Amino acid sequence: MARIAGPGGSSGKEFTVAVALGRLRKADLKAPFRFWAGDDGTALPGKVGEMREQLAAWMTDPQRVVQRTQSLEGRERAVLEAFLAAPRHRRTAKDLAQAGSGQAQDQVDALKRVAILFDDEGDAEDAWVLPRELADRLLAEEAQSAGDSALFCALTLKGNMERRYAGPEATRPMPPSRLREMFKMYANEAQAVARIERLPEGLRDLVGKVVLEFGGLLPRRFFERMKTELPHWNQRRWAKIMGESLVGTVERLELSPYGIQHDDDTLIVFNEVTLAWFKRVAVPSDPDAPHDNCSLGVDLVSNISRFFAYLIDHQVRFTVKGEIFKTTEKRILTELIPNPGRELERSEVLQFIFHFAVRHGFIEGTGERTFKPVSYTHLTLPTICSV
User: Fold this and answer.
1) Is the distance from CB of 308 to CB of 350 less than 8 angstroms?
2) What is the reported pTM?
3) What does the pLDDT look like over 362-373, one tens digit per residue?
4) Is residue 287 situated within a structural domain?
5) Number of folded domains in the chain?
6) φ and ψ at 269, to 5 degrees?
7) How far apart are alpha carbons 234 and 224 in whole angstroms?
């Protein structure tokens, strides 16, 4: 492997992928080409310039950089992380050991063979450097992943419990199996509702309002326009109470990286808790049942026939919006079989029949702005049931 004049070298050039690849011989480019090609099966070019050009394209492609570096072994990945954290992404053998990577010469050699690390001649002692574009792509991916993780922890009970009990801030990290058991217990609907009901009165009412009217997220600027018994926005107190109760949190939430224009202090009710409150409070009797059941029996077939018969016998005009005039609707309703009980009203049945006939091409408009049946000889009950 050729030695490269890096940030401290005499070349004075910025240490980019192009500079690094430009210093490698043809023999040194074959292993990097196979590594960066991955599963593409791209044939090795015969010319050195073409090899460098293809490698440079791969090594500056964000998706390819993440994909190929994720294929590295654990120790190699740890060494790469040490270079990402270093000033100018450069390390010597001595400070690499001090960074916690220990004796990492084998891993450094492996990363050099695939053109991730390069020798740096800017110092008398052995030193290596990571090209700027590679470092930029990997750091951007880490920042995105960290942002996604932070958002997950802020919005969900599961993420918050992972951060609280198994993350870096935990004094004694909890084993994953125990954390899963705890999550199942606290995500239980009855448990989640009970925790909201145990909140202090003013905060409890606010949380219920946030769930039912705002979907579990209340920006501060919205709170300041609300009518509430709470005198002011008390972020520290609410965050402490809601966090300890595993109901939610209050923190600054920025969603602009996700295409949403929101950057404000926000009261957040965890997603699992929000769903539990919706299901147990908004629909208390049976949260899994539909709000109401409506059905149409065989009378529907007779009503469809009566609707078409009326169109044949009368000139039914329609509005500029393509709807039947209200006065005509009333006359048609008198021809339909009334539905007993608490099922749909006849006017709703007529609307269903009309839109069904239009959608399936059984009626069409004429130049005189009237409806006429096209054909309904093939109209069958399975056709109706398929709507």
Assistant:
1) no
2) 0.44
3) 887 777 778 877
4) no
5) 4
6) -95, 125
7) 11
